[in-house]
Amino acid sequence: MEVSPEEVLIRKADGDLVPFDAGKLRESLLRADATPELADQITDAVAQQLAHGMSTRTIYREAFKQLRGASRHSAGRYRLKRALFELGPSGYPFEHFVGKLLEAQGFQTQVGVFKPGKCVQHEIDVWAKKADTLRITECKFHSDAKRKSAIQTALYVQARFQDLVAGLPASEQALRPEACVVTNTRFTTEAAAYGACTGMLLIGWDQPRHAGLKQWIDASGFHPLTCLSSLNKQEKRVLLDEGHVLCRDLSEGAMSSVGIPAKKHHKVLSECASIIEVRDRG
User: Fold this and answer.
1) Whose CA, among 45, 74, 100, 107, lies 20 to 30 Å from 64?
2) For residue range 191-202, what is the model confidence (pLDDT) as tens digits?
3) What is the mean predicted confidence (pLDDT) over 248-275?
């Protein structure tokens, strides 16, 4: 007897088995700016290949393969979540990426700086100022999608925040300080509750709802160069090591300086323009 797609159980990254949700797949394709017709076509094609126990990663790969063949712009946006994992393993490029996102929101930023607290000196991932606001930001990069930022991170950040605020120089004492943690995955329920109680701003991939990291990226049009399929992993790594993080900041000069062949430059820049073009028009 033929089984409908909704009856097929697929395996999530955390190992849980859940029914396949065609609507959720279609919606993710639409968010990547695929046309409704293309989203329907890919969703139907993926549904025909389903098997019990198939991983969400396998489903993603098949959807991405088909999307890339039809629209590089949509494919680059669709692989955004996985592109963030390529900002490791050190997490240093992720800090610079978060700094860029805060700049897109009007902040003036310093990345990887040391600031004195009342008791001791602290290394701050992103020190950001805008108008009367001082946002002290910790960036928690995880290379494993199943790993969440736990209560220990929130407690640690809050303790440092209190020491830093107590030690602010006279020139910054009039600013309204905010503690912030940004992660490329999610926060545990306990960490989220602590953040809400203390007024700490916790930004995860899709936390808080409708205002998470993916919404920050979509609103700014600042997509990491790791979204690009026209560069291989080694080329991306070399560019990141040289401080290049965003698609919109890539240039022929930047690529030449790290040894990327000139014959690839046009293809890479065309893909960069394709990924950000809709956001720029909007």
Assistant:
1) 100
2) 999 999 999 999
3) 93
